[in-house]
């Protein structure tokens, strides 16, 4: 099996350590977070904790696609993280990515980054509307998202678990994770507002985000709110329709 490795120049002298943890990923490291779709493990490196994401082997069609036609999720995560860093957008420091392939098929890939300590994710704002300084954090998050849009960053997985938040006496810092789906370039009004559609089911939160985004962008508040709420409802409808369909398919498979 062939392999391809890209390591951040700041860590070139430590390639033996990173090679070791990738080759021994299955037997070393500390499991972290949800392991349903992909696997995450933590490793201690000097005074830093390293986060390694192991992407599951794709289906046979994507094994061919990633082998010849598309960049892997690990490569995209690494490259997009470097773009964010260059634009001074918060994301854990990218360290490396690894790919393992056969002559005609793509197999395993890994993305290595710094593991950040954080106080909460955006998700906690959706599950606890009484979280301390809730509105203040939500407005700061909206300013962060506006900054993404102004920099031409369309984060396609802008969902509750993919923004880490650090609290520091009112100085809120936001960091994007799960980076493998992004577009770069100017964004029109509809694309910008639709980017909020996956974040919450709560109308009160949409009201606050719409108000802050309208102030920042100069767009009319009612125009922002009406589209943001419409897209939020549409996403929820698609989400639950898909869930119902999966439930029916499971029933018929029994």
Task: Give a verbal description of the structure.
With 254 residues, the protein is an alpha+beta fold. The protein has 2 domains: 2-114, Phosphorylase Kinase, domain 1 (2-Layer Sandwich); 120-242, Transferase(Phosphotransferase), domain 1, CATH 1.10.510. The protein is 43% helix and 22% strand. It has 8 helices and 11 strands. It has helices spanning 15-23, 60-68, 73-86, 122-127, 134-150, 189-194, 203-217, 221-253, and strands at 2-7, 30-31, 39-45, 48-55, 94-101, 106-114, 120-121, 153-155, 163-166, 173-176, 182-184. A 6-stranded antiparallel β-sheet has the order 1-5-6-4-3-2, with helices on both faces. A hairpin with a 4-residue loop joins strand 5 and strand 6 (106-114). Helix 7 (203-217) packs across helix 8 (221-253). The longest helix has 33 residues, at 221-253. The two termini are 38 Å apart. The mean pLDDT is 93.
Helices and strands in order:
Elements: E1 2-7, H1 15-23, E2 30-31, E3 39-45, E4 48-55, H2 60-68, H3 73-86, E5 94-101, E6 106-114, E7 120-121, H4 122-127, H5 134-150, E8 153-155, E9 163-166, E10 173-176, E11 182-184, H6 189-194, H7 203-217, H8 221-253
Antiparallel strand pairs: 1-5, 2-3, 3-4, 4-6, 5-6, 7-9, 8-11, 9-10
Helix pairs in contact: 5-7, 7-8
């Amino acid at each position: 099996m062939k392999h391809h490795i890209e390591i951040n120049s700041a860590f070139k002298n430590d390639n033996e350590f990173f090679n070791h943890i990738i080759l021994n990923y299955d037997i070393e490291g500390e499991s972290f977070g949800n392991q349903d779709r992909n696997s995450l493990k933590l490793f201690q490196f000097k005074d830093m904790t390293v986060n390694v994401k192991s992407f599951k082997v794709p289906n046979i069609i994507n094994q061919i696609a990633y082998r010849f036609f598309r960049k892997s999720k690990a490569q995209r995560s690494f490259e997009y993280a470097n773009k964010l860093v260059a634009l001074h957008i918060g994301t854990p420091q990218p360290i490396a990515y690894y790919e393992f392939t056969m002559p005609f098929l793509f197999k395993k890939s890994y993305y290595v980054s710094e593991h950040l300590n954080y106080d909460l994710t955006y998700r906690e704002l959706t599950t606890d509307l009484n979280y301390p300084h809730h509105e203040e954090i939500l407005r700061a998050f909206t300013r962060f998202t506006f900054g993404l849009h102004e920099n031409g960053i369309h984060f396609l997985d802008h969902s509750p678990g993919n923004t880490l938040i650090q609290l520091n006496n009112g100085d809120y810092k936001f960091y994007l994770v799960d980076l493998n789906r992004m577009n770069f370039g100017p964004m029109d009004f509809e694309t910008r507002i639709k980017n909020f559609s996956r974040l919450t089911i709560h109308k009160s939160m949409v009201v606050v985000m719409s108000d802050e985004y309208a102030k920042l962008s100069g767009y009319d508040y009612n125009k922002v709110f009406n589209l943001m709420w419409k897209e939020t409802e549409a996403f929820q409808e698609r989400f639950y329709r898909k869930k119902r369909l999966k439930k029916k398919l499971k029933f018929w498979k029994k």
